[in-house]
Amino acid sequence: KEYAVPVVPGVLDVNLIEAQGLPNMKSGMNRMSPYVVLRVMSIAPVGTLNLTIHKAEGLRKIQLIGQQDPYAIVVLDGRRKATTKVHYDSGRTPVWEEKKTVMLTGKEKSGAIEIQIWNKNMMSDERIGYAYLDVADVLCPSKKKWLRVNRKKGKQNNSSLDGKVCVSWDFQAHSAPSFKPLKVLESKTGYIGGPDPKWENTLSVKDMVSNCYVQATLRNKRTFGTDTILAISNVISVQGAIHQNFFTKGKNTWYPLTPSNATRSKCNNNNAGKIKLEIKFRSADNPDGIEPEEIEPQVPEVDVLQVVSSGPVVEASVVNATVQQVVSADVVHADVQPF
């Protein structure tokens, strides 16, 4: 069985629990007062996407007389990028087998590529439904993947009532992926300070999509002068964290920290301690938090981006990069600077 965390809109909750082993930057008798600055980001691939739209099955019937004549339109950021030919008289099971090229600049506002299914009519074409391909998914070439079609725009779920469309793709990167900042939030100082602070402070962000990423920067609050950056986490995949926490029953919620320039001399082996986070994503259909769902097995040709876990670490990294991509690059550090 294979499982995946669904890509859905909703609310991101990051519960800051505690940290351990932070660099001790206390001054005189003043104890450290650490707090967390949380950056929420989305990944932004840069390159050429070769998207093949194979066929559709089980499309809802919207034509009362005769057979439907479906075709597909590829839309990104509200602009039409490509259109398939019409498969006349194919009804609910059209076959296209067409490859389309979409350029990704990394500056796209939308986090998903929209595939609209239409019915060709003599007077006026009618829309059958929408399917969505997560932009972050294009980094993992796929032989074939079924996307659910829904009659409502922006609705992404696992219902099969409106049919499904089969796609595959390969991606030729022009540069390393970057991360686009979406939100920046700041926590309170810990109710217990020092190098082992405790917070129990939940930071929530509305109007997010579950394929986002987070990064925590720990700072020391100072009465006078600029607050000191103590440590920084890797960029953490929200979907990866939810997947890992589900299958380990919440045991792996610690994330390692690396020192800043101000604290590097106080840390051994680039180790600035660790932070405990509980990451949850609430959707309209899952108000208590989404969980991994069973999916149809996929056999990728090349694993370019995957969620990996090493002990308590859940992060995104590049593996098996092809010659068109950046070799031996670490996505978690792409275009991400301490703040």
Walkthrough of the structure:
Helices cover 3% and strands 47% of the residues. With 339 residues, the chain is mainly beta. The strands form 5 sheets. Strands 2, 3, 12, 13, 14, 15, 16, 17 and 18 form a 9-stranded antiparallel sheet that branches. A 4-stranded antiparallel sheet has the order 7-4-11-10, with no helix packed on it. The chain has a 4-stranded antiparallel sheet with strand order 6-5-8-9, with no helix packed on it. It has 1 helix and 21 strands. The C terminus is likely disordered. The longest helix is centred in the last third of the chain and has 10 residues.
Task: Give a quick summary of the entry.
The protein contains one helix and 21 strands. It has 339 residues and is mostly beta strands. The strands form five sheets. Strands 2, 3, 12, 13, 14, 15, 16, 17 and 18 form a nine-stranded antiparallel beta sheet that branches. Strands 7-4-11-10 form a four-stranded antiparallel beta sheet, with no helix packed on it.
Number of strands: 21
Summing up helix and strand content along with how strands pair, one would put the structural category as mainly beta
Query: Which spans of ≥5 residues are poorly predicted at pLDDT below 50?
Result: 300-339
Residue fraction in strands: over 45%
Radius of gyration: 23 Å
Overall shape: elongated
Distance between the termini: 41 Å
How many individual helices?
Answer: 1
Series of secondary-structure elements, N-terminal to C-terminal: EEEEEEEEEEEEEEEEHEEEEE
In helices, the fraction of residues equals under 10%
Largest sheet, described in full?
A: 9 strands, antiparallel
Mean pLDDT: 84
